[in-house]
# Entry
Amino acid sequence: MEWTPLPIGVDNFEKLITKGYYYVDKTLLIKELIDRKGEVNLFTRPRRFGKTLNMSMLRYFFGNGETDHAQLFKGTRIMTAGEKYLSEMGRYPVIALSLKSMKQDTYKEAFHCLKEEIAREFKKHPEVAGSLALDDDREKYTRLMNRRADEEEYLTSLKFLSECLASFYGEKTVILVDEYDVPLENAYFRGFYDKMIVLIRSLFESAFKTNDTLEFAAVTGCLRISRESIFTGLNNLNIISITDSSYAEHFGFTQKEVDSILKDYGLEENCQTVKAWYDGYQFGDTEVYNPWSVINYVNSCCGNRNALPRPYWSNTSSNSIVRTLVEKADISVKQEIEALIGGGTVTKAVHEDITYEDMDSTQENLWNFLFFTGYLKKVREYPDGEDIFIEMAIPNSEVRYIYKNTVLRWFEERTKEKNLTPLYESILQGDAEKAAEILSQNLMDTISFYDYQESYYHGFLAGMLKNIGNYIVVSNRESGNGRPDLLLKYPSVRGKAVILEVKVAGTYQELEQKCAEALQQIEHQKYEESLRREGYQDILKYGVAFYKKECMMKEG
# Structure
């Protein structure tokens, strides 16, 4: 069977339509924008939720030019919305700026990337320069078009271009800015946030605050950055976050849209899998699926109807914020993360006016970042005094996978940095009590989510011991009549060998009994015999018992 190709990574509306890709019709976003008449509209949604494609759609609908783009919208819902809306098609000069590529290591490199973007917009209208009455304006336009302008000229470049286009075409301009917060997030983690804030604020203030040639603007991003840091004094700003009901169905896929996709590709029986893995978001009162992941999953099923779901979003989203949360987390936050991964909830006061500096001010602010970036979903909300409290949970299996795997990897990285020599010395010298104390301390630093099963503790212990110098670590290999959990062997049989058997206690009081059971198993299964056959004479045997974040070790 021949399938309609799915638009994986295609975020240009013209290409999507003309090349015959599958399209989930979001054109009524245009109608809502016209109806609501917002002058500057800021849409905040998680990464990969269709923001860039929608901005491209707006550019082709509203933009004037030599090409008639009406054919691109043939058969879409906006075409039957009425003359009021169709009369706006192809009417305005459009400035479309994407900041998503501003992820450079230095401010200078990021600013160069911005200059490239701005120059591209000036180059789209080379005829405008010659029409300008003043020599200074013609020269300035040419400098900006050729990336030769002074740095301060870029601060007001969007407003200048808007004025030039409005004068030339006789219509006010539409300004579209995609992923406005990417350079801010990058600058925060790279160490030049303050300089980037000044640049973006200057660019936006001139374009949106004092621009009489602006028809309307649409800005997208992942986070709502406070007015004070970016949108100072911008009274015409309409902020549409994931907590708002307006525009809710235009970003992400609704249940009805997902049902249609699955039906079109003959995958109706996969609906529960798709729901468990990629549903769970709520924008306003609208249930929303992650569109990027749904498209990728359906595409994988075109070759194999029984393809397993995968965490497609984890490969495209920045996990820097989750990592920051984990690295700065105290014991109470770690317990809350464990509860979330286990299917529980946390309830936090949510404040939408935040800045990246807030990430360091209190741990509570980090929950705001996780919520607005799609790592948590709203279960319910309620007011308490002046604050709004939101009960939050992990949205779906895909995001839970991200938590599990990133947390595990970061813990392993932290373990590499720790000096575990005291642990190794304690085990090799027969000091079971000291070794247990060190293991308990390290357990407090971990985030566990396997209900404290034996496999979890086995992995934890193996991870702690894997860098023990000059020793071979053997995990679950055949030995004697069964499999000891862990063996440590010196390469020469003249050195030591260590047998460790792991048990899990149901209560704290049961720890000692479980240590004894582990030692009995070592004797009963004759784990020691194969080591003695190899030639080892100095053999240490430990029964290791765990209860939650407590460890006890006994030597046999």
Remarks:
- The CA atoms of residues 492 and 536 lie 8 Å apart.
- The two ends are 66 Å apart (CA to CA).
- The mean pLDDT is 90.
- Residues 397-417 form the longest helix (21 residues).
